[in-house]
Amino acid sequence: MTTLSARQQRIVRLLLSTPNTTAAELATQVGVSRKTVYSDLREIVLALRDDQVTITVTPRKGITVTAKDADIQNILRKLKSEKTKLPDSDRSRERYILSELLRSQDYISIDQLAEVLFISRRVIQRNLDNLNRQLIGTDTELLRIPGRGVRIEGEEGKKRKVLFKMLSQYWDSDWRMDQSSEGWTADPAIAENPNIDSSVVNILARVVQNVSEKLGLSLSEYAIQSLVIHLAIAINRIKAGNPIGQNDDLIRNIGNERKSEAVQLAAMVEKEVNVRLPDEEIAYIQIHLISASANQVSLANQHSMIPIPERLKELLHPFGYDRDLLFGLTVHMQAAVKRLRVNAGISNPYTEDIKRNYPQAFDEALIVSDDYERTEHISMNDDEVAYVALHLEAYLERRRAIHQRVNAAIVCSTGLGSAQLLAARIRREFSDISIVKIWSLQDFQRNSLAGIDLIISTLRLPKGDIPTVTVPPVMSDSDALLVRNLVRNIEDEKSDKHAEFFRIIHGDLMWLASNTRSWQAVIQNLGDRLEQQGYADEGLTASALDRENLSFTSFDNYAIPHAQPELVREPAIAICTLAHPINWGRHKVSVVFFLAMTKKMNQQQIDSIFDDLYDIVADTNLLNALTKATDKKEVIEILKRGIE
């Protein structure tokens, strides 16, 4: 195990937590190319060969992990005990540098950072550029003064928000708290972060648990995590001479809700860690308790007990909804509104991944959030919007599960006894088969077969265009295998994904090696091309610019701007490669895919296109190749290489 790098250890954790995944998904989560993932997997397989774990990589199918729970826990324990001494990736270095800058009262020179991290000044400069983009929208600033170094400028409260979000991202990936019979205890890895004291975290976890039980507070793991991290940061900053500033408006605005509990919790914390918490610190504890209570809506309630706002149904009507979505969003937004009215925002460590992987759901979440902002007088940042997007993506997944199933008709002599017996077995063992018809032979001969993908019959039927399998009413395992193989063939034939993607790639919508210096100009040019060549109506460009101002669509070195589908006449993807990377939100972008999707496209078509697009953008080498392409034919060849 000691031969594995920090990145490879993270891949192991991801594999053990998700036994069925793909190289593309791992590449996105870890931030490398699929080629690198496959290379890492070869080393991981060798490293785990003595740990009773089998990793199977099947081309075009995915990666499967087979292991017993005890063996998985044993590997996780080994990973805990084997820490990487120094950050070995841009992301981990940036997190380390941010920690040091937030902790320091003075400037830190680039030479100091390069020496400590055993890395070149050029790499440190690149990491600082990335950090500078990450701090956009946080009301803090990365100051770089020649001859002095770098430091983070901003109010104490704003710095703490940055710190809170960073530490929240450690949760469940690099460290966590474990609950035992003795209560919550912090993982030893917490000690590696200089911004909090692991011994204090253990004390705080115990105090929070004891006080919550004494006061009858039902706190979720997330609520405990948030409160413990907040208190640990506060204590560390107070001890370092960085107390929160006086804020009479904050104290006045939150009123007395949960104030008594906050005061009692603060008193216990002061006693245990010997630090005085001023009124402003107690007010923030109060906000956390209000936030926790806002989320205590029982999901066991019947849907009928939760009134669904009519405006929510109207908002979701173009997108679609089911009862689960309406109920889940109503409960979530009730809690969110209560939290946000006292400025109790929640950190979301997966915002970037949600925006990247679920753009359709995130766009709809922006619409929902905008409506709630206007009607409830609250403000929702990307973290909040991303949580809304998860509810919407879950709804899309439920729809996909319905549409992606194979529609089967069962045929027997009468359509009664034996057919029903066979249908029961099919329903029990084949979740990807939807039985849409049960016919007698006469029914089969006189009914239309439209919409039928598979016929399962107890009788021999004349050969037709629809795949047919003959089995006895009581199927054997070998009969079931026949059905399974046929279903797989049908699923493969139904998903001709690449055809959908290349159908909307057009040479007249490519702009190569552009010298454009701003993201606004890129959108303007690509949008104008789509409008002028009849792919979209006038207003598409303005719509895309408005959408980008709500939340940037840039990730790593690419961006995927898009506009309202109502303005698109014919689906298309306009492509721009840049001669020099440009600043786009928090990223330096070299390749742009302007997505023009219509309302007429069904969910399967949309999913197919995005699946191929993600295979392309997950491959850093392929994106670099696109930036060097000199003609449109070469671009097409590179895209084909990325998904085939």
UniProtKB/TrEMBL annotation:
GO terms for biological process: phosphoenolpyruvate-dependent sugar phosphotransferase system; regulation of DNA-templated transcription. Residues 406-495 form the PTS EIIB type-2 domain. GO terms for molecular function: protein-N(PI)-phosphohistidine-sugar phosphotransferase activity. Keywords: Repeat, Transferase. Residues 503-642 form the PTS EIIA type-2 domain. Residues 284-402 form the PRD domain. CDD domains: PTS_IIA_fru (cd00211), PTS_IIB_bgl_like (cd05568). Pfam families: HTH_11 (PF08279), PRD (PF00874), PTS_EIIA_2 (PF00359). This is PTS system, IIA component. It comes from Lacticaseibacillus paracasei subsp. paracasei CNCM I-4270.
